[in-house]
Every structure is written in structure tokens, then in C-alpha cells.
Amino acid sequence: MAYSIYDRTIAFAGMCQAVKLVQDVARNGNCDSAALTTMLNSIMATDPSNTVGVYGSEADLRVGLESMVRDIDGSSSGSEITRYLVGVMALERKLSARRDSMAQLGDRVDTLKRQTTHFEILDEQMLSNIASIYLDIISPLGPRIQVSGTPAQLQLPHVQHRVRALLLAAVRSAVLWSQVGGKRRHLLFGRKQMLEQAKILLARN
């Protein structure tokens, strides 16, 4: 199936949104709850009809699209975002090479879907459950992503849950990025095209 620059931009915006929210939570202890909800739901979007369906709509990726346009450059906050993205993509490559880990992940996500009948997605129990998937399946694949932030915030369990849940969502978007044909070379040579596409999406949403 042929995928377009649009599909790659959507998947990359998903990754950017997840890691931007990681940055916000790690620094301030909280983040945009609508954008967080979008990313947590994307983990369970295992049978979408199209690329944007993973996230709901283009408008649901505003934080990620804005981060793409603003942060993917040489600025200090941008370089932190870029460092997270590189780490997430490395984890995705390791995950995709491990059929056993992919199967485990599928089982755990199926369990999550069942739990949504009992818990709201932003319920602390749900966030803890999502975070544990990252800890059990993704984190051991290594290398670990070093999250920078406010030390006092990073010691709080609810902050740790959000950070790990969002890193799982970032890996989910990285899997999607690979599925729609995203390659490392697109980041090196096709970045300008993606940024132009991101600006178009922001303008119409």
C-alpha cells in the first residue's frame, strides 16, 4: 500500500505530541489533558480505518503538529524533544525485531481495552496499568530513555505513570510511522516536506 507524506506527517506528529507531553509532565507535573487522552487512546487503536484514525482527528494532534514546527530544530528544548524521538525510534526498532515482545504487547493492550469498560482513560489505575506495560515490555529492550525534568516531580508516582504511559504512546506512534513507510532518511532529507505539511494541517484546524 502506498503511503503519502500526509500519513508520515500524522504519525510523526503523534510521536512529537507524546514526547512533548512527557517533557511537560516531567517539568510541571501535568500536561494538556485532551492531548494526553488522545495519546492514551491511540495505544488501543489497533484496527484504525486510516492513519489519522489512530488519533481521532487532525485537530487532536495540534500539540504534536505545533511541536514539530517549533521544536524540531537546534533550540535547547527542541534538542531534548529530538533526543526523546531518537530514543523512541530506537526502542521501536528493537520491539519490531522481537516477535515475542510484540505478541506480549498485543495481549496486554487487549487487556487494557477490556479495562476501559471499568475505568476512565485518565483514571489513576488506568494510567498505572498503561505505565506497567511500558515498564514490563518496552523498557527492558533498552537503551533506557533518560527523562529530564524537575527532580521533585519525577519522584511522584502519578508523574512516573504519566511519563511511562506517554512513552508507550510514543512507541505506538513510532510503530505507525514505520508502518506508513517512515524511515530515518525521511527525517534527514524529507523533514522540510513534513514541516510544510504540518503547517498546512495547523492552518486548517
UniProtKB/TrEMBL annotation:
Any one GO cellular component localisation term in the record: plasma membrane
InterPro entries: HflD (IPR007451), HflD-like_sf (IPR035932)
Lipid bilayer topology: Peripheral membrane protein
Keyword terms: Cell membrane, Cytoplasm, Membrane
Location relative to the cell: Cytoplasm; Cell membrane
NCBIfam families: PRK00218.1-2, PRK00218.1-4
Similarity comment: family membership: Belongs to the HflD family.
Name of the protein: High frequency lysogenization protein HflD homolog
Organism expressing this protein natively: Photobacterium kishitanii
